[in-house]
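Quick illustration, no need to memorize.
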Amino acid sequence: MIDICLLGTGGNMPMPYRFLASSIISYLGRKILIDAGEGTQVAMRILGRGFKSLDVICITHCHGDHIIGLTGLLSTIGNSGRLDPITIIGPEGIKKVVEGLNVINPYLPYQLNIIENPSMDIFMKVDKNGIIICENEKDSNIVISTMKLEHSSHCIGYSFYYKRNPKFNVEKATNNNVPKVIWNRLQKGETIELEDRIYTPNLVLGEERNGIKISYITDTRPIKEAKKFIENSNLFICEGTYGNDDDIEKAIKNKHMTFREAATLAKESSVDRLVLTHFSPAMTNPEEYAKNCLEVHENSIIGNDGMIISLNFQE
């Protein structure tokens, strides 16, 4: 099971009743954070999301409401006893911004691996000990994809595909004369050399199974390229800066989206579930405009701080 927690759902500035938009994806006890605006670590503490098991931080863009909380967060992670490296992924310019913010963090006890403006998919493997980068897709169980968005600064959207191992096939393992003592390790994806023979997972596993796709897009207009990028997502978390349809001109000018535009993008991309976030500070009650997205995409949810969405792998 994969848990997605909305730490905050606000845009532009933190409010007394709403933290800035950020989310944590948790799987096998390890975490990926999306954006780190002011107050993100406070929201994490309130919601009981641990710091030491945070392995990857994905930044959409370098506007303050999405990154200004990174410095304090990295310091707190250091104080949690973490020594393993952390991977930061972000758009063009992310290295310079992180270096600038970290002037006051000169002695972090762990290494930062920064991936700037990735031009290809990033393959990662997660287990109970952490998330590491893989050289190829075969060894990975998470694939992170990015795409360029349309905003007033360099901005990227994210797609996270959590792969699922095929079922163990006893008949196949038996027919291939695989010793039972290594069945469990092969099922977990290991390649094993035993008695001068190399055993690979494909000797014991059945057909591929569908994984879980989570897409995250914020601070952008609903560009056509996004449709293919988020297509068939099990969960699509999208900005809905403006709930009122009458604010469409404001959305175009500021390069954001209305609820209706986000819902249209979700419907045209055949996503299962849409969750809206990144609400304008002027919109104190986003639920008031829920009909504007529900009329277009019935499986739409107005996000709120602390909301948890759980996704299970399907047979």
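The chain has a mean pLDDT of 95.
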